[in-house]
Each structure stands twice: as structure tokens, then as C-alpha cells.
Amino acid sequence: MLVLLSDDVPPLAPDGDQARRWAQEELAQPVYAAAKPTLADRIAQAVSDFFAHLFTSAPTGAWAWWVGVVAAIVVVLVVVAAFFIWGRPRAALRTRRAAGELFGDAEGRTAAQLRRAADAAAARGAWDEAVILRFRALARGLDERDIVSTGPGATAHSFARAAGRRIPSAAAALESAAGAFDDVRYLRRPGSSALYDRVLDAETATTAPAVAGATA
After folding, report:
1. 169 assigned to some structural domain
2. Membrane-spanning residues where (predicted)?
3. pLDDT > 90? residue 10
């Protein structure tokens, strides 16, 4: 039986040029590009191969000492490179915290900056501002010391209760300071030097030597 092949049907036995063109078209597909190792993969493989060769060649005598020194230097260089690429985890975490929310408002200042702003407000008699800023400084300070996290959604009293569990000796002062903050911030009651002192007392209670172990 005679079978006629149309012009658009590829030959069953392609010649060399046709086969090479098919291979190039196949390898140009995205699936093959995605399977190629990345630069990071190649670097990691090179480091792995280096250590594998280093410890399987089993040098002896004076060479063994030099191999150990080289291995130690390589490890140190890798650690230093990782430090500069990714940075200190805790420092990065604190940077993210400082740029976040604090009791419903965006607040990017550190505890030290908030304290200075609160002291300046108190010095000019702006007690509403001073009370609010000082309580924020108290909360941000405990967050920076990894005692209590003040993430999104935290309220003054939920923060005070959490901090009081970590520092029982300061629990009452923290609740009193949270009340002062809520009175001024949400109930619109006028601030005063007495309310400001309540927040200062709470801050002092959380930084006393007796609670130093809570900062670990």
C-alpha cells in the first residue's frame, strides 16, 4: 500500500541538519533553562566539593596541619561573608520592629528617641504628649530588650499584662501606666505631671537591677 506524505509532515529519518535543528529547538524550551543550576548552586557545590576533597585525601605529616589551617580560614571567610550579606538577625529584627506599629499608630522611633521627645514635651508642659510618648518609650524599650513584643493589635493593657507576667515586681506599676496612657490617649482626659510620673515609675520598675534576669 502506498502512503503519501504531505509537505508539513517531518521525514521519519531526518538528516543531520534537521536533527540538529530539532535538538536546538527542544533545548531552547523554558523547562530546560529552569533546570540549570543558579550561581548560588554552583558556589555551594564548589564549596562542598572542596571540603569533600579536603577531608577524603587524608594528608599526613606537616601537610595535615596546613590543611587544617586552610579549612579553618575558609570557614571563617564563609561566616564573615554570611554576616555581611544577611546581617545580624537580632539587629534586623529590631529594625523591623522600629519601623512598625505601636498601639494603633505608626511609630518608627527607638525607645531612646521616644524618651527624649517625652522629656522635651514635659519640659514645655505639654503633658498629654509627654504621657503618650513616655508610655510608648516604655513599650518600645521592653520590645527592644526582647521582653515583650508590641506587635500590631497590641493594646496598652494587653502589653502591661504581658510585661507584668515577665516582670511580676513591676506588674502593678505597668497597669497603672497603661491606665494613664488610655486616659489621655483615648478618653481625652488632660495629662498632668502626676500621670507622667506614673509612667516613669513603671519604666523605673522594669529597668531595676532586680529584673535584670528578665532581659536575657
Report:
1. yes
2. 63-87
3. no
Residue 173 lies in a domain: yes
Report yes or no on 188 lying in a domain: yes
Q: Note the pLDDT of residue 152.
A: 82
pLDDT at 81: 61
Residue 27 cell numbers, joined: 533545548
- Name the phi and psi angles at 102, rounded to 5: -140, 105
Residues 110 and 201 in one domain: yes
Q: What pTM was estimated for this model as a whole?
A: 0.55
Q: Are residues 180 and 80 in the same domain?
A: no
Residue with the larger pLDDT of the pair 130 and 14? 130
Decide if 2 is inside a domain: no
Q: In the predicted model, what is the mean pLDDT of the chain?
A: 75
Is the Cα dihedral 188, 190, 195, 197 positive or negative?
Answer: positive
CA triple 104-132-216, angle to 5 deg: 80
- Cell numbers of 197, please? 510620673
Could you tell me if 153 and 81 lie in one domain? no
